Structures are given as C-alpha cells and as structure tokens.
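Slide 14.
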Amino acid sequence: MDSAETPTAPTPPPPIRKRRVNRGDPVYRWILTAMALCLPLLLVTVAGELTASAMPAIKRFGPSFVWKSTWDPVAEVYGAAPMIFGTLLSSLIALLIAVPLSLGVAIFLTEFAPKRVRTPIAFIVELLAAVPSVVYGVWGIFVLIPFLRQVAVPPLRALLGWTPFVSGVFYGNSMLAGGVILAVMVVPYIAAVSRDVLLAVPANQREAALGLGATRWETVWTAVLPYGRAGIIGAIMLGLGRALGETMAVTMLIGNRHDISLSVLQPGYTMAAAIANEFTEATTNLYQSALVEVGLILFIITVIVNAMARLLVWRVARGTAAGSKAL
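Slide 15: predicted structure.
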C-alpha cells in the first residue's frame, strides 16, 4: 500500500483555557452602585430632616402659612407669602433680562461667530459663574444701584410711571436691583446650556434650510431654534432654579422688607434672604420651625424646577454635538 494513501491522525483540539475571573469587578460594581445611590438618598435625607424640623410650624399654621403675610416673631405669628412673592418676582425679572441676552450669546457663538473667537468668548461668559455672589453684591451696591438711580429708573418712570409696577420712590435697594443682579448671575448658566443644545442640533437641519434658500438668520429661526426648543426651555428653567436659590447678592440689594408690592422700585424679601438674615435671631422653637418651613418650600420649588429642566435638556442634547459646520 502506497504511503501517500495512509490516513493521517487527526490533530487534537487545543486545550480549553478557563476564563480568568477578576474578583475585583463585582466589588468595584457594588462600590459604584452604592456611591450612585448615596445622591438620591442624600436628597431624601435632606427633605426628611427639613420636614421633621418644620413640623411644629406645619401643625400650627397649616396651609395658610403659604398665603398669609404676617411675620411677627413677638406674637409668634408667621406667614411666608411676601417671601414667596418676592422670590418669584425677582426671579421673573431676572429671566426677563437674562433670557434674551443669553440666547443672543448662544446663537452668536454657535451660528455667527468666527471660529477663532468662539472659544474665548464662551470661556469669558462661563467665567461669570465663578464670581462669588458676595462680589456681585458689592458691585451692585457701588455700581448697579447708582446706575439705576441716575440712568435707568428716570426714563423707566417717565415711560411706565402710570402703572403700579413702576410706582413709588426709588431709594436704591429694591426688587429691581435684586432682579438685575440675579440676571447677571444666571446669564452664564442659560447661555452655556443653550449653546450646548444648539450645538447638538444636527447639521442636516441647517443644510436643508440653506439648500432651500434661507438666509443664515432664517436658518436659525426656522430650523435650529425649533429643533432645540425643549432644551432651551430646560436651560431657562435651570437659570430659574439658580435664581430661586441665590442668597447673598440678593440679600444685599433687595431691601429685605417683609411686604408685598407690585412696584419693582420698592424693597422686597426672598425666602433665601429671610433664612440668611433671621436664622441666627430665631430664639424660639416655633420661630426656627417657621424658617425651616420656608426652607422646605424653597427646597421643593427648586427641586421641581431643576428636575423638569434636566429632563428637557436631556431630551434634546442627548446626541452627539453636530456644530455649525454648514455655515
């Protein structure tokens, strides 16, 4: 028999190697899970502590604490309506000023600015968020209030003095001053998030509008802004959450008067300013409990606003940033 026809023995399969198990992976996973759970647990803990500390005031005054205006530590009668009103009004003034300015900055940086100046301008705008609030307060006292008194308020009163919103004598520290300083402080937050949202708009949105003959501004107005509307609203709500909780700068400029007035030229009060001013003076348990309840209301409002804002921003900006390459 020919040796060429001799069958060859089959090659044995390679030995199966057991997969090495890294025992550190489960430990690492459990550690990360525990650290991630600490954040919501911390939020729940803060809410529980605030609720427990505010319970005496909640039982004493009930829901009427929200709409009553009397704040008398001597008689131990408390109502937070002027603080809630002042917080909402000053934040509204801030948004009326900051939103157009912030959107203008974001649109300019993403759609019109030359590439060589986009990064420096964005850095300068975001740097405003790093300035301490007490510095803004000092700047407001020595620069903003004199500017409002001499330059801004006289023509404003001449134009709108017949309305209840611009009535009364303007002394300086007022709801308007507090709203303007809040606007300066929230501009970097709204501008930065709005810029990220606009960068996340796909380039084909711009290319389609340009291909149909739209101008650059028409492209922004009809294609870019509608696509990122939810994210921009989320950015505005993030700025609102920042304005609601600001303390030091507003305390230095708003006047700290426990009263409700429709005029933005009159002093007002905010929940954060009341806590900062009066907590060290609270000598009774009910007084402390009332201030804690004010903090609980502020906590609930800010958590709701920020949660809604995060959901809106995530809805639009969860993709990869597309930039403005078509332009």
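Speaker note: DSSP finds eleven helices and two strands in the chain.
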